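Q: Sequence in, structure out?
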Amino acid sequence: MSALAPVEINRKIPRDPQVVEAGMKVKLIANPAAGRKAPEKIAAIRARLLRAGCAIDITITGGRGDAEEAAAAAAVEDWERILVAGGDGTLNEAINGLVPSPIPLGFVPLGTANVLALETGIPGQIADAVDLFLHGCPKRVVTGTAGRRRFLLMAGIGFDAATVHGMNPLVKRLSGKLAYAVSGLQVFCRGPAAPMTVTLENGARISAQGLILGNVKRYGGGFLLFPEAALEEPLLDVCLFRRLSRTVLVRCLWRLARGARIDSPDILRFKTKQAFVEGEKIPVQVDGDPEGTLPMSFASSTDELWLVMPPEKKPAI
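A: Exactly. Output:
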């Protein structure tokens, strides 16, 4: 049997490929502006795919929307796998173009935060990440939606979203995470966040000054915000800030930086399938990129997305 022979699970997907076949058709979507030396890294990815015997087609993105357009086109073509080389924002675009689709999606992290790589254990080294893409097993995962936009990692409303909206793309490209700190300080100095109202699926209404909906454990890189979150779970983890004063914000950031759980009477934590959030022109971010303003609905979605991820580590006996 072919190593990439499909198995029927709702739709046809490749299963446990252990050997790379000559001529395996791979669509590569790469962002040359993601992180340092991205063009050189993209060239190394291409070379490794070719050495593995893959037939590849490359889309080099030039601006926002290019990765989404390329993934949407690939979804209706005869590709065996799609590989995204870039940051979490490039990955988000590709997912929005691809889903729903049975075509497995892989990721080589080149960006600033690379939250998915940290979450799942996708290697940071080019050779190891490409080898995982070629030999790894696709797993079905759940995405979230913010309005009409999908997110894989998280959606934020309030302080973090204002930070993302206010960030200079050139500064981000040159300084990486420092750009978030600069923008965040500017938002911090502007004073208290505007109020919003969160309506849950049971009809309950809660006043808040900040909200983060997580689909993974980590937030903004290595910060462990949602210890119980899982990509395979059909619920979103919520961290709701009833009050987000400067004092509360500093305390939360300090605890996150130390790897401690952020808990206080000002914070509510729960899981939900969906929520509707209202507020006056309050910014929203998804997977680290700006995504308009409130009002907006948020939900988890079980539409098909298959990610190529490292195997789960078996517990020691």
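Residues 38-51 form the longest helix (14 residues).
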